[in-house]
UniProtKB/TrEMBL annotation, chain A:
The keyword Acyltransferase does not apply. It is found in: Cell membrane. The keyword Iron-sulfur does not apply. Residues 136-371 form the ABC transmembrane type-2 domain. The chain crosses the membrane at residues 179-202, 223-246, 258-278, 290-310, 350-368. Belongs to the ABC-2 integral membrane protein family. Keywords: Cell membrane, Membrane, Transmembrane, Transmembrane helix, Transport. InterPro entries: ABC-2_transporter_component (IPR051449), ABC2_TM (IPR013525), ABC2_TM_bact-type (IPR047817). It holds the Pfam family ABC2_membrane_3. It comes from the Bacteria. This is ABC transporter permease.
TrEMBL record, chain B:
The keyword Repressor does not apply. One of its GO terms (molecular function) is ATP binding. It comes from Flavivirga jejuensis. Keywords: ATP-binding, Nucleotide-binding. This is ABC transporter ATP-binding protein. InterPro entries: AAA+_ATPase, ABC_transporter-like_ATP-bd, P-loop_NTPase. It comes from the Bacteria.
């Protein structure tokens, strides 16, 4: 066995004996997936609507039923009077009023393109955009022309509807968890491996065992690699557990090649581990290591595109995300899982992550001092 | 290596900012010698040792260990020395055997050699029964003796022991010194720091460090004569004053 194998063996024994690491690899990703994918989403679960059916025909009732049948839409009231329906909007008990005009059926049959009016309460922008999106999708099946009118005195912001269509392009069922789970998985893997690796080395420094290692002829790269490989395995196990959990719990789509995703994940974990090890070289105590790690993690998470799309950030911030391994990780896992992207579509993520892995690990080896 | 000296130190100095932790110490240690490195708390013993073993860069001065320069060839020195740190340095969450294997492994010993060493250490320290116990469960005295044995797993020429007997009971201390004698008999050099003045009597020569400087250096016998004292304790008290 060569020297490296002895270090790796020792790390694995310690990892297996550590009572905290196994639950961290299994329970933590599952809990976080469930909590965050549901709670942290800005998915619109329920839209309250009032239907004003002035036609009372076969067709209008079919449309009505179609609307009610959607499990994200709750019918608050039906009314024959538009003014009465406005009242619900004003009271905030309804998000949208759907007005089916008289002669809807007749016009429809005669090819006159009847106009259905959506009156949207835009005080809650998200609710308004997504809710009208749902309704548009339903009404679209009627092939009818739709006029959407936002009531001026209630509306505070009128946002463009084009954003919804692009965001849900690869998520036609509008399952927000499908969108969140891959990102959260990537974020959790990166976060945990950074912290575990940084803490591990600093702990050796605190306990004093690192001094004992530093008086041996062990090479710096052997030490770093000996730490990197075991934590890479932890990261991959965690990611695997997460993928399986997401499939079982949320039935997330897995459209792309899993081998490609795991290949990229390996590269990404190597990059973030390099950062973790780099941090550990500058921290004397575990507390310091945690603080420095969190500084990076918070920036990485907020600028990762997990909660706010990178496209809607200012230009300079968008450029900064090139240095954010988490942004690439989230982008790749979404692309591969949801869009089924191949290598060519994620070549830039591969390239940037490779560069980051090289820089972080290079710096980690370079700044590791056997001598003070 | 054709000098008769295992350690040669000339005006070795370490500063931390304005503070001089080790102030131009000069001495030589012969091969096979047991050299006692005494000094009160904070005298600079640990700092001096760390410079000698390549953990800390000297600010000034020159040091040679096993013929290699401490400033420029620390990695070459490391193959020839063992070090038992003042801080406990075994892995608490590994078993006795796993600790021996790990350190043997990173010193690059062959698998066969590690096996031999493991049996040897377990038998010598009478640890065979607890060989599969975690180190954390052992009494301090056993841990210290194990740490000593492990610091010598690669059969170094020189071994540095930084307060190896700190906090252990007199019986274990005696065992410890028996081991030190065995090591020295095999021609190895032992460089040991201690707080216990009775232990100083067991050394071939001792140096006494006060506030970063070596104030006295000779055999215990000569030092007692020089300071007109009956014990090393008295010598130490007279110097410290
Ligand atoms: N990294 C450091 N930075 C600043 N001062 C230090 C550093 N390391 C040691 N010192 C100081 O240098 C002096 C000598 O410390 P050292 O640990 O060498 O003493 P010692 O003789 O080993 O003491 P002890 O018997 O307590 O182990 C102390 O005053 C200590 O505070
Ligand atoms: Mg000390």
């Amino acid at each position: 066995m060569n020297i490296l194998a002895y270090i790796i063996q020792k790390e694995f024994i310690q990892i297996i004996r550590n009572k905290a690491i196994l639950p961290m690899m299994t329970v933590l990703p599952i809990v976080q997936l469930i909590v965050l994918s549901n709670a942290a989403s800005n998915e619109v679960k329920n839209v309250n609507v009032v239907v004003v059916d002035m036609d009372q025909s076969e067709s209008s009732r079919t449309l009505n039923h179609k609307i009610i049948a959607n499990d994200r839409i709750t019918l608050v009231a039906t009314s024959f009077n538009t003014n009465e329906a406005y009242f619900y909007l004003q009271e905030n008990t309804s998000d949208i009023v759907i007005e089916i005009p008289p002669n809807f059926e007749n016009d429809y049959i005669n090819g006159k393109q009847p106009k259905i009016q959506l009156l949207v309460n835009a005080t809650n922008g998200q609710q308004a955009i997504v809710g009208s999106g749902y309704l548009k999708a339903i009404v679209a099946s009627f092939n009818a022309k739709l006029i959407q009118k936002v009531i001026p005195d209630i509306s505070i912001s009128k946002q463009s509807n084009t954003t919804i269509s692009s965001r849900y392009w690869y998520n036609p069922e509008l399952k927000y968890t499908h969108f969140m789970a891959p990102g959260i998985l990537a974020q959790l893997t990166a976060l945990l491996t950074i912290i575990l690796s940084a803490m591990n080395v600093v702990r050796e420094r605190e306990v004093g065992t690192i001094e004992q290692i530093n008086v041996t002829p062990l090479k710096k790269w052997q030490f770093i690699l000996g730490k990197l490989i075991p934590f890479l395995c932890i990261g991959l196990v965690l990611f695997t557990v997460g993928i399986i959990a997401s499939k079982l719990i949320f039935n997330i789509p897995i459209l792309g090649n899993l081998l490609l995703l795991f290949g990229y994940t390996t590269l990404n974990i190597i990059a973030v581990l390099g950062l973790g090890l780099l941090i550990s070289n500058f921290a004397d105590t575990q507390q310091q290591a945690i603080f420095i790690a969190f500084f990076f993690i918070i920036i990485f998470v907020l600028m990762s595109g997990l909660f706010t799309p990178i496209d809607s950030m200012p230009k300079w911030a968008q450029q900064l995300t090139i240095g954010n391994p988490l942004a690439h990780f989230i982008s790749v896992s979404r692309k591969v899982l949801m869009k089924g992207s191949g290598f060519w579509n994620i070549r830039f993520e591969f390239l940037y992550t490779f560069i980051l892995a090289f820089i972080f690990n290079g710096l980690a080896v370079w700044s590791y001092k056997k001598q003070v | 290596m054709n000098t008769p000296f295992a350690i040669e130190v000339d005006k070795l100095t370490k500063r931390f900012g304005d503070f001089i932790a080790v102030n131009a110490i000069t001495f030589k240690v012969k091969k096979g010698e047991i050299f006692g490195f005494l000094g009160a708390n904070g005298a600079g013993k640990t700092t001096a040792i760390k410079m000698l073993i390549g953990l800390s860069k000297p600010t000034e001065g020159m040091g040679k260990i096993a013929g290699f320069n401490v400033d420029t060839e620390p990695e070459k020195i490391k193959k020839n020395i063992g070090y038992m740190s003042q801080k406990f340095s075994l892995y608490d969450d590994l078993t006795v055997v796993e600790n021996i294997q790990f350190y043997g492994g990173i010193y690059g010993l062959s698998r066969k050699k590690i096996k031999e060493k493991t049996t040897e250490i377990l038998e010598e320290l009478e640890l065979t029964e607890v060989s599969k116990s975690l180190v954390i469960s052992l009494p301090l005295g056993w841990k210290q003796r194990l740490a000593f044995a492990i610091s010598m797993v690669h059969d170094p020429e020189i071994v540095f022991l930084d307060e190896p007997t700190g906090g252990v009971d007199p019986r274990v201390r005696r065992q410890f010194w028996e081991t030190i004698y065995q090591v020295a008999e095999k021609g190895r050099t032992v460089f040991v720091t201690t707080h216990y003045m009775d232990e100083a009597e067991y050394c071939d020569r001792v140096s006494i460090m006060v506030a970063g400087k070596i104030e006295a250096l000779d055999t215990p016998h000569n030092l007692k004569q020089q300071f007109e004292a009956t014990s090393m304790d008295e010598v130490f008290l007279k110097l410290a004053r």
